[in-house]
Amino acid sequence: MGRNLQRRLRPIDLAREHGLSTQAVRNYEDAGILPGAERTPHGYRTYTELHAQALRAFLALIRGHGHPTATAVMQAVNRGAVEDALRLIDESHAQLLDDRRTLDAVEAALGDLDPVPQERGDTFVGPLARRLGIRPATLRTWERAELVKPRRDPRTGYRIYSAADVRDALLVHQLRRGGYLLEQIAPVIAQVRSAGGVAPLGSMLSDWRARLSARGRAMLTGAAALEAHLISPGFQPGL
b/e per residue, 169-189, with b = 16+ CB within 10 A? Predict the structure, then answer.
């Protein structure tokens, strides 16, 4: 194993394994993603299996954590701050958990919504506020955040909520009860509107859950690749 770790590799050797350019490999070293390479008397970079392992770990981490976090993790590892690297990974896992909880809340909120048929007709701020158990001022706050968009009666100036507006208000109310901020709710409402209602969102939510699952599994793969790098006999943090 020791001889294998000392085997000299060229930038092209690392690049070919992953379909990268040699310049990309050099850029990764310059960015601190790979350990520093030795140079030949003519100035050519020479890598070892340790560098190849670091590159595998980095590319695996990207798939689960994204490029910025993967970069920060490998930079921390290479400067000897392994605890900092692990903390970054923990934070990324926490974000995934938060995303899962958000999805659960959205699915629960959508499931709790009563159908809002168009024939139900329009309503006004007072009756809608009473139905939701909130103050009219709260509905006006949601309107300023563009979460609900009632039209105005041209004669009286009163706000008039259509069936779609009521649907949006019900969804906002459910998510607010789940502890979500208005800025977190806004993208969900935008999705409901672009889908033309709640029903077409089923496939979107299924896709969302599949992407979260794929991300979670990619994180496992990235963790395994990083662990393989950290336990390598040739690994010396900070060098």
Answer: bbbbbbbbebebebeebeebb
Tokens of 72: 């920060």
Digit-coded pLDDT (tens) for 29-51: 999 999 988 888 888 889 999 99
Class of residue 75 by CB neighbours under 10 A (exposed 0-12, middle 13-18, buried 19+): middle
Helix extents (H) in 124-181: 125-132, 136-144, 163-177
In angstroms and rounded to an integer, the radius of gyration of the C-alpha atoms of the chain is 26
Side-by-side strand order, sheet with 123-124: 123-124, 159-161, 151-152
Question: Looking at the chain, which runs of residues are DSSP E strands?
Answer: 38-39, 45-46, 123-124, 151-152, 159-161
Count the alpha carbons within 13 Å of 69 in the hemisphere toward its beta carbon.
Answer: 19
- pLDDT at position 119, please? 37
Phi/psi at 7 (5° precision): -60, 130
Residue 174: C-alpha distances to residues 64, 120, 132, 135 (Å): 30, 21, 10, 15
Residue 107: both structure tokens together: 């699915």
Token look-up 């000897």 returns 80
